[in-house]
Design a protein that fits this description.
Helices cover about 45% and strands about 15% of the residues. With about 250 residues, it is α/β, with parallel strands linked by helices. An 8-stranded mixed beta sheet has the order 3-4-2-5-1-6-7-8, sandwiched between helices. Strand 3 and strand 4 form a beta hairpin. The longest helix is centred in the middle third of the chain and has 16 residues. The mean pLDDT is about 90.
């Protein structure tokens, strides 16, 4: 079983849209897929029309296998299940900080379903925290959307610094440019500069700033389901293909 995290330490960069479309692409390609929504706002659950599980509190999430598995819901798409978030997830950091072996608690919780899925995709909250470090240690690969702007470049560098400071393997990081607008000179300049600076840490696929992605919230559906032949749909499919090659999978 592979564990892939969609993560950014900066909000508003297209993280959840990426998680939703990658989950759809993985399931569509024949993988039994679980999208685990770890963001208390529950945006990826919302996109798949799945209501929060109010009984899955922080204690149950990490220690109650039966309640964890019972909280998983089927989506409208074959091979794709959702573990929805709820607002109690905002307390994960406080809860983990009090636990022994807190760095491995997430991995232990996910092992409960390892025989049921080929891949677990984590939609992560946008911060660096105890939960984030759990995610970094648990995931086989971490997909990081980066808007080609100065602030996003800075946060991507901060993320790499965190990995170095905590002896985490940089090779787990798979950045890509998100919400790219070709008409903006700054975007083009930033992409060029970052590719020179970060090399292999950045994938070749770029996700455009597109109306189809914005409409996901209206239709509550992945771009790959409602508009697969659009520029954005093709880009997400390309991202899925490139990521699997990078993970040798």
């Amino acid at each position: 079983m592979k564990i892939i995290a969609c993560y950014s330490n900066k909000g508003g960069v297209g993280k959840t849209a990426t998680a939703v479309n990658l989950a759809h692409a993985l399931a569509h390609s024949g993988n039994r897929t679980l999208l685990c929504d770890l963001d208390p706002q529950g945006a990826s659950s919302f996109y798949f029309r799945v209501k929060p599980s109010k009984k899955l509190t922080e204690t149950a999430f990490f220690d109650d296998v039966a309640r964890f598995t019972k909280s998983i819901k089927a989506s409208d798409y074959d091979g794709l299940d959702i573990l929805p978030a709820n607002m109690s997830f905002r307390d994960f950091d406080v809860f983990l900080a009090r636990m022994r072996n807190s760095r491995s608690r997430l991995k232990k919780a996910l092992k409960a379903v390892k025989n049921d899925y080929d891949v677990i995709l984590l939609d992560c909250p946008p911060n660096i925290s105890v939960l984030s470090e759990n995610i970094f240690r648990t995931a086989d690969g971490i997909v990081v959307p980066v808007i080609p702007t100065t602030l996003s470049q800075r946060t991507f560098e901060q993320l790499q610094d965190f990995f170095r400071d905590h002896d985490l393997p940089l090779k787990k990081l798979h950045g890509f440019f998100s919400m790219v607008q070709g008409i903006k000179a700054l975007h083009g300049e930033t992409i060029t500069d970052m590719r020179k600076a970060y090399g292999k840490r950045l994938m070749q696929t770029q996700i455009p700033f597109a109306s189809e992605i914005e409409r996901m919230g209206v239709h509550r559906s992945p771009v790959l389901a409602m508009s697969p032949k659009s520029q954005a749909g093709k880009a997400y499919e390309a991202l899925h293909t490139e990521l699997r090659k990078r993970l040798d999978w």
